[in-house]
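Quick illustration, no need to memorize.
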Amino acid sequence: MRLKIENAFAAGYSSQERVALGRIAYGVEPDKMLEIVEKEYWVPRAEQVEVDNIVNGTTRGRYHLVIGERGTGKRALLLEAMIRVNGDGIAMLEAHNDLEVFRTRLGKAIDYEFHEDYIGGLFSIRGPRDSTPLLDIERALNQMEKVALSMRKRRHKPLLMIINNIHLFKEDDGARSLLEILQQRAEIWASNELVTVVFTSDEHWTLERLIPHATNMNVMNIKDVRKDVVVDALRRYRSRFHGQNVPQSILDQIFALVGGRLIFLNQVAKSNDMLETSRHINRREKSWFLNQCWILGDSMDDDVEEQQKFCVSLPSLFIMKQLLTSFRLPPSSSPGPSCNASRNVVTPSSSFYLKYHSTKLGRSSRAPTS
């Protein structure tokens, strides 16, 4: 059992990692490897150096929550760092809202067998201690901890476990218990430099859930790419792989339509007509946004009425945006309210607008806390 788990952390890629890496991981000729990597990871990221240090073991003693909106490139940052170390000492798996599915994925990632197919199980009765997936996950983590202790002496650096999309865990007792187990292990392993655990999430509630018990947690907030980086990378990509010299005006229009969201930029860069693809993405996202936040009137369905607290707060958010853009800010900073101020807009408190407006105009010496 221990040899299998050690093999799961050896150099190379497991089947789950091969699927995530795509063509890079299975049988690509060495002379084409660089071209594929440059095609897939063509936008330089400021966070890449920090992620590289986490993956190669330079950064130790912490576990990490990589948080950001969907499509900002969290997985791409980790995969690019994995390629540079050839998957050495890394196990990666995807979260799931079903504990049985997560248990299976964890066993596959670290090559731990739960003996589901043991024929002797047909003639035995499972006791209460053998009946829950949480206990199986705990046993698998116990075995992994023993392997990490033995490998630490040889490797002289911690192992790495990546759990993607932990926001998929349900808001129920089982998922809360699972997240608590994973965080407890991450805390202990980080303090002893045995295993570095990296969580990725698209939603902010996971941060709120982990923070009360976090001692060694580091939070990385992945944001959209800046305009100058996007324009330069897109110009170089189209010039090299499509033989096009894209005018600056076209690049400015593309950024105005899709912004610096990496998932959209990949679609635009690889399309034949970049402007038409950008307009299509813009229309699609606008339709989704209006379906989520628009006020539909008195004849709305009962299910839609549950979303009205967000719909009512939408005009307030637009008012705040106009208020903030009216102040003179440095060119490098984008106007935006603090987290606390945004929450107060969604759930307005008494005299919030007066307090915020007077604070920004300098009439109050005490700024709202974030």
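The mean pLDDT is 80.
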